Amino acid sequence: MKNEMAGTTDIAEIFCDESGHDGENLLAGTTPVLAHSSLYMDLGEATDLVGYLRSKTKAQSPELKASDVLRNGQAIKELFGEKGKLVGHTQVYLVEKANFAIGKIIDLLIEEEAYRRGINLYAGGLAKQMADDLYEYGPRALGADAWNDLVAAFTSLMRTKQRKGGAKETVDGFFEKIDEYRLRSRREKVSQVLQLVWMTRSHADAFQQALAAGWAQKTLDPLQSSLFQLAYSWHGALKRPIVIMHDEQTALTEKLLRLLVKVANEGSPSSFNLPNLKFPLLDVKQIDSKTDPRIQLADIAAGFCRQVAENALRGNADQERLEQVRRFVHFNSVWGDAKSWEQIRPREAFGI
Q: Are strands 281-287 and 33-39 parallel, antiparallel or unpaired?
């Protein structure tokens, strides 16, 4: 990207793909991390780069995939190193799913009650502080098994569809757990937040009624908020109206995409649970990744960043890979583990 791009009125097409998406299944999915990748690059440059990577990796499939590239150390260096081909062209929004689930306890229950009382939990960072306290102290306050049981009960209660073979948590069952755990908690900060959750039953009931009526938003899937954040950041970097070109993804329904565009241009209703950040998002289109090399490059970046982030979360990330991934991670990613975030967080603001 070059400085003269900023300030023009041309539309910027941003190409997106993800790695590690499990929908609303935040705790028992295939991976603890979602990586949502976005790329801004000229078609000719992307075509040449994918052609080079296919030749270098001897990829045989019709479509270049992350697995083709991430086995080749030299290709990784050429893409993600200090002067890598994707540096400056790519942002990747990371979601640590366990932390995202805990944040939703605040957003969907406590914040609703606070709003009813005329209290803004987001002013001064109070909502984030509550979520951070639960993430850090919850397992110690209740024990790991009990804490995981509580968060799993919440995600089951608030998801729009229950997984096959599992019984959906009921409002009665969830609040029985809250009643037990708020009294059992060995950390005051956790006890205080759980006491606030205990007072939100009417909002849980209302959400279940909305689910039954078929008009509740899918609130536990991080894909919508990560896509919104990426589009907003690209607008800020390029100072241009944005069109998102996303790999085909069933979770991105036409209804959801229309709502994302509406929220970006008109502002966020309180029920949508997104930042009230207005910017010109003109459209979100879904395309077949085989038809555009920029989607394939976004897929490679998503796979690389997720792999390194998961290794950091487990405490076994390679130092060189950590230095590489920091060039791509979105500053506002959803991440709770302080030690691994210090390893992967960006060291400077993304921009042109």
A: unpaired
In angstroms, what is the C-alpha Rg of the chain? 21
pTM surpassing 0.90?
yes
Listed residues 213, 240, 273: the one ending a domain: 213
Distances (CA, A) of 225 to 20, 193, 260: 15, 24, 9
Assign residue 216 a region (left: φ > 0; alpha: ψ between -120 and 50; beta: otherwise): beta
Q: Which of 169, 192, 213 is the last residue of a domain?
A: 213
User: Do 187 and 40 belong to one domain?
Assistant: no
CA distances for 93 relative to 26, 227, 295, 301, angstroms: 16, 8, 16, 11
Number of structural domains (the chain) is 2
pLDDT, mean of residues 224-234: 95
Number of neighbouring beta carbons within 10 Å of residue 129: 14
What are the residue ranges of helices labelled H in the chain?
43-57, 66-69, 73-80, 97-105, 111-116, 126-142, 144-158, 171-184, 188-198, 201-213, 223-238, 254-266, 293-314, 319-325, 338-344
Range(s) of the domain holding residue 247: 3-96+220-344
150 lies in the same domain as 246: no
CA distance 303 to 31: 12
- What tens digit of pLDDT does each residue of 318-332 get? 999 999 999 999 999
**Does residue 108 belong to any structural domain of this protein?**
yes
